[in-house]
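Board notes (copied after class):
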Amino acid sequence: MGRPERIARSIVRTIVKPSVNGAQKRPSNPLATILALFSAFFSLYQLVLRKIRPADFSNLRRTHWKLNDNDYTDSFQSDNGAMPESGLQAIGDMGFSGSTFYSTRDQKFLVKSVPRHSEHSFFRDDLLTPYVEYMATHPRSLLVRICDFLGPSGTSLGRIFRLAPSHHIVMENIMYGREEAKNKGEADWEDWDLKPTSYFYPERDIADGALTSEATKNQLHDEFHDKIVLSRSQADELFTALEEDTRLLAQHNAVDYSLFLVRIKTPPDEPAQEVASSPEESSIVPTEPPSVPPAPPTWRTGVASADGKYIFRASILDFFWAKHKLQPKFMTFLINAWNLLISKDGPMSITTTPDEYRERFLKMCREIVEVKEGNGES
């Protein structure tokens, strides 16, 4: 069994097995307990994990997102008595953070590792309580719905030497339904991970990017070279949610978050307006958790463009980078020194101020939207 499978097994066991106050139950036999602790310490990849603040996430899932506990854990179960790790499918290392990603068997949830101490400590110590309270009172928020937060239970060699990620978040997958659409022969869904491109990116901007491979530069950010055509009411609802969500993030010093945008081409025989008004008749719009409630149309389930060509979904991701943590402070010092001594290139998206990042992020979002007024003029 390789590294991805061992990491997946530790995640699945933490989600599925009974626990007490978020910690896995210990064997009742003293000898078995000693052997379990010994095995856990020398584990390199299959770390013993626990749920962090399980009652809070359980309340969000059950009370506010109407997600049944059995349905939730079923997503992580393997088929036909297979090994536990088969309940998750590895989808690779993505981006510069070194994060690993998994998808549940039914594609409803994603598991993302949060390996950097500055990020998982920020979420645990600073943002978790405001996030839980905010998500309970803002059902139409675009912040990604985090269903569980996993952390280490005890010390192990794998954690000491960073051979396996120690923290993971379980979140909704707004790409849910893509595989089914592909199997039906429908057009593949498009997606973009959008951040403001006007910041200084060393990989792109030093020596015009000649010192970095194209593969590395392609991981920096996406660009959406089109418009989301919305009615005035759709646009107002989108901008209101974006402003409220980013206000929360700015208040807690978060920067470098992104807008994950999904575009689904409307089937030729099914106009977008009909998809939005009759979700029960369309495979494009989910009618069950994790995407609902509230009832469609929402930016989680799919919003029909005003020109009838597409269904759009959107979510705000990766809001774990906070300016007051040690690593961000160090990066800010380096970039300030670069601007002072070498070239005045301005801040990076990870070194700017929260309010300034919010301003550019909202500007980016407004620039990709075209409002189609009721009289047909935009």
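Comment from the instructor: The chain has a mean pLDDT of 83. The radius of gyration is 22 Å.
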